[in-house]
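Entry for the shared binder. Reason: the reviewer on the internal report wants the predicted structure included alongside the sequence.
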Amino acid sequence: MLINTVILFIRDTLPVFLLVSLLLSFVSVPRYAVLSGVGSGGLLALLVYLGLDGLLAIGDGNGLEWLKIGALLLGWLALVVSLLAMEQQCSNQFKALALGLMAALFTLPNAIHFLIYSLAYWPGAQSGSAMMLGTVIGLGISLSLAILLNMLLSGLTPAFVRALLLCAFCAGQVAAIANMLEQINWLPDQTRIWNTAGWLKDESEYGHLFNALFGYEETPSQAYLITYCVAFLIPLVAAIAFRKHSVFLYVKAGEQ
């Protein structure tokens, strides 16, 4: 139970910590918008959990998957709008709305699985202490990695590199839609393009980290790769095409 809780925490909540770390590495990003967006996403996940029985009755039992697909697509659209808002130097209120919405929508699908697991098993007397310890360990790992990433990005990389990493992170989240559509039989069985399990397994520590950071899959399907590339390139192309500044993303004076 302890190991399962740590793994689940890293798999389903580490992406939220990494998203916050990536967004806060931009000086022009309103901090309150990101944090309130994550909080709102967590609250939405709780509401989804409370209405889970009704949700599972929708779409031949695939209501939860369709909800996550919708949240990821809307979150990706919010990413595009956020990048354009930063490039166009829109008002802080508009940027805060777009960024908060993006943070909330990407938090929702990641938080719901941990809530389902923890709230379903936490009442068990034998599992309670193990789950609590696993949660503390998972929280410590996730928080440490997020702080380290933020320090590295804020101190060493230009805004362009941070934007690439942000788009790669969001593309990895959106590409999971292909896997969900395959699971609910809306996509035919996909041929696996390659297998890198000999180098880096999905279940390994680095596999979980790279999956959370930029959607690493040891055996990606053709649909997964196509979705990933489209989700990665469109925000970049849109921001570059409509840029008004000499750098890719608007940065305040003093940011490198």
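Summary line for the report: The chain has one domain: 2-241.
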